[in-house]
Amino acid sequence: QVQVVESGGGLVQPGGSLRLSCTASGFTVSSAAMSWYRQGPGKERELVAGISVVSVYGSTANYADSVKGRFTISRDNAKNTVYLQMKSLKPEDTAVYYCYAKSRGVDYWGQGTQVTVSS
């Protein structure tokens, strides 16, 4: 079965850190464009970070302006998992975070994981 499954969400205080995981099955994360999206309360879903397919030149990552310098997307090919390391979290980062993959022209979405930043 081809799917992506997120984990790692939870409640964290402002200024804290959290790491989200997205584990893929049915395809290899190194051969797919992988991204993290989020949807906050009453907001539209937005792109947070993305990492390109691995090529001979490596891969590139891109970030939303709101998270640059605080979030890092990375890939562990051995675990077939993509991570989103989040630091200096703010209340406005509160959202359901979704993993997205595009593999062989097909889109895959995870079920989402809730991140709540609150004191």
Description:
The protein has 119 residues and is an all-beta fold. The protein contains no helices and 11 strands. β4 and β5 form a beta hairpin. The model has no long low-confidence stretch (mean pLDDT 96).
Helix and strand string, N-terminal first? EEEEEEEEEEE
> In whole angstroms, how far apart are the ends?
39 Å
| Helix vs. strand class | mainly beta
Number of E-type strands: 11
Q: Give start-end ranges of low-pLDDT stretches.
A: none
Largest sheet: 7 strands, mixed
Mean pLDDT: 96
Roughly what percent helix?
under 10%
Rg on CA atoms, Å: 14 Å
Q: Overall 3D geometry?
A: globular
Strand proportion? over 45%
Regarding quaternary structure, how should these chains be classified?
single chain
Number of helices: 0
List keywords for this structure.
globular; 11 strands; 7-stranded mixed β-sheet; 4-stranded antiparallel β-sheet; 52% strand; 0% helix; 119 residues; mainly beta
Task: Lay out the secondary structure.
Elements: E1 3-7, E2 10-12, E3 18-25, E4 33-39, E5 46-51, E6 61-63, E7 71-76, E8 81-86, E9 95-103, E10 106-109, E11 113-117
Parallel strand pairs: 2-11
Antiparallel strand pairs: 1-3, 3-8, 4-5, 4-9, 5-6, 7-8, 9-10, 9-11
